[in-house]
Write a structure and sequence with these properties.
The complex is a heterodimer of chains A (308) and B (252). With 308 residues, chain A is mainly alpha-helical. Chain A is 69% helix and 7% strand. Chain B is of the alpha+beta class. In chain B, helix 5 (215-226) packs across helix 6. The chains are: A mainly alpha (308), B alpha+beta (252). Chain B: This is Membrane protein.
Chain lengths: 308, 252
């Protein structure tokens, strides 16, 4: 069944859209990430114009993360205080990202930037996560009891000024690293059409040492709020949010996220992180190859003037 | 006296021995894009008749008919990736202003059998003709990038040449069929019909039709442009609601 997308100005198969929304939603529920970093490239390969794909996926990420965030909220797995700081700085970063997006698109270097951005970001984060997850799994196999975070285990970030107490996370840290993380994720997220959950989760775990039980919930809450703001920014600035496309993806995404979340309960934390790391690395390698390998078609075309 | 003679000669030579006109019709002059829009089939038909006021009773062929369908113009850019120290980058680009977003040619025979390349180019019947316009990039780059742009557009189904797309049902009555793809850009379209005889254009006609979004699709597309803030807010509310509903429905 074909459905016409009024902003993308083409028609696509409804079941295909709901299907990829569901598949990515499953992964987002499983790992607590928005799934934008998979969905945006998938849509672009399916023929959706890149600006429309990036802008509409932000809407889908909101929906996919909402159900996850709500269920974490009921379980008390969200540090709202911490999330608020992250969102405020994230929205600021998103303003910068959406503006840069327009500049790069007009210069014809958006593809390059997206490829390099994904490669560097995903490659770096993926390697870190995989390394950590493998170590944790090996330690556990050897029978070493993995130590829980000690309250006094601090790094240099915790010695910065402007300290704030985050009760739920049992943290008393400077807000500066929190704001910088939010700003960075807001900028990168709106530029690459990703929620930034896969950066947020390791940043919260390794940099801020947020305890595991609130990491995913807080990250999801931040993704919901920041992506909602980014959707509005894209709608106002580039007018390339396709509500039909986003809705088809949302329907699949929310259903998939529920199954993903319940599947996630059967896996251990380090196993989950290891799997996510492999997924992130696979996408990074895919983008790396696209830079190095000779493209199937060295020529490409685009419409100038306006997103559509 | 010389100029007078020349004028008479020109009139005598320039006047066709016979005059034909084309009476043609489109099957639909308004193509409506609805939620289930999956392309649209169009028919072009017409008949070649003696010109009004001439003494001729009938027309003599053989005729060839070429139908050119042109979509709204856009400014397009063609880009080329090159290998720079092992990394493939977009390094070169050529802009084509007012380039047709849709261009299909239907003809009753092979174009090169109908007429010569000069006529095809000057009448803009060949897709490449649209790239052969003055461009800041210089003629060589324009030609190279133009050819690639036409190829890319053809791969998207937006450009095409269908030699044999026009069928003559009798000596002077033809019909042609065109399927507009689902990615046909909305806007004003022009269908130009040329009648050829012995390699010369003897009659031509242009008809316009529109591809328009209607109903809900039109409402959405208009709101996205006219009320972007409200549109964005509605998107977010819809997303939050869908997410919440999904959580409620699948709650376990």
């Amino acid at each position: 069944m074909q459905v016409y997308l009024p902003i993308a100005e083409l028609s696509m198969n409804l079941f295909f859209l709901v299907g990829i929304g569901g598949a990515v939603g499953f992964l987002s529920g499983l790992f607590g990430v928005g799934g934008g970093f998979l969905l945006t490239p998938l849509l672009i390969f399916s023929g959706v114009p890149a600006p429309v794909a990036v802008a509409s996926v932000t809407g889908q990420v909101v929906a996919a993360s909402t159900s996850g965030a709500l269920s974490h909220y009921r379980r008390g797995g969200i540090d709202l205080h911490l999330a608020m700081y992250l969102v405020l700085s994230g929205v600021l970063g998103a303003f910068g990202g959406v503006a840069t997006f327009a500049v790069l698109r007009d210069a014809g270097q958006l593809d390059l930037f997206i490829s390099v951005g994904f490669l560097v970001l995903l490659g770096f984060v993926g390697t870190l996560m995989l390394n950590e997850a493998i170590r944790a799994i090996i330690k556990q196999r050897k029978g070493v009891v993995v130590r829980e975070r000690l309250p006094n285990q601090h790094n240099w970030m915790h010695r910065l000024p402007m300290r704030v107490r985050f009760k739920k996370s049992r943290l008393y840290i400077s807000v500066l690293p929190v704001l910088i993380i939010g700003l960075f994720i807001g900028f990168v997220g709106s530029l690459l059409g990703i929620g930034g959950g896969f950066i947020m989760v390791p940043a919260l775990v390794y940099l801020l040492r947020v305890p595991g039980n609130v990491v995913i919930g807080t990250s999801l809450a931040q993704v919901v709020a920041m992506m909602a703001a980014t959707t509005i920014l894209h709608a106002v600035q580039s007018q390339s949010v396709d509500i039909m496309l986003a809705f088809c993806l949302m329907v699949g995404g929310t259903a998939g996220a529920q199954f993903g979340a319940s599947a996630g309960k059967h896996l251990r934390g380090e196993q989950l992180r290891g799997l996510l790391a492999i997924l992130v690395l696979a996408v990074a390698i895919r983008f790396g190859l696209s830079l190095i390998l000779a493209p199937a078609d060295p020529f490409s075309m685009a419409v100038l003037g306006g997103a559509r | 006296m010389k100029w007078w003679l020349a004028l008479v000669m020109a009139l005598l030579l320039g006047m066709p021995a016979q005059a034909e006109r084309l009476v043609s019709q489109l099957s639909n002059d308004n193509i409506e894009i609805t939620s289930s829009f999956d392309g649209e089939r169009m028919n072009f038909f017409g008949t070649i008749m003696p010109d009004a006021g001439s003494d001729q009773k009938f027309v003599t062929g053989p005729f060839h008919v070429v139908v050119v369908v042109l979509g709204p113009t856009q400014n397009r850019v063609a880009r080329q990736k090159t290998n720079n120290f092992g990394v493939w980058l977009n390094t070169d680009q050529v802009e084509f202003d007012n380039f047709p977003s849709y261009f299909h040619v239907l003809s009753s025979a092979r174009l090169r059998d109908i007429t010569d390349i000069t006529t095809l180019t000057t009448e803009y019947i060949l897709p490449e003709a649209h790239t052969l316009v003055a461009n800041d990039a210089g003629w060589w780059k324009t030609a190279v990038f133009g050819r690639e742009l036409v190829r890319l557009m053809t791969e998207q189904g937006l450009f095409g040449v269908n030699e044999g797309g026009v069928n003559f049902l009798s000596d002077n009555f033809y019909s042609a069929r065109l399927t507009l793809p689902s990615n046909a850009p909305p806007g004003p379209y022009i269908a130009l019909t040329y009648v050829f005889k012995d390699g010369q254009v003897i009659a031509r006609k242009s008809e316009g039709f529109a591809v328009r979004k209607i109903g809900f699709e039109r409402f959405l597309a208009l709101s996205a442009v006219q009320q972007p803030l409200l549109y964005g807010l509605v998107c977010v509310v819809l997303a939050l609601f869908t997410g919440w509903l999904g959580g409620v429905l699948f709650k376990r």
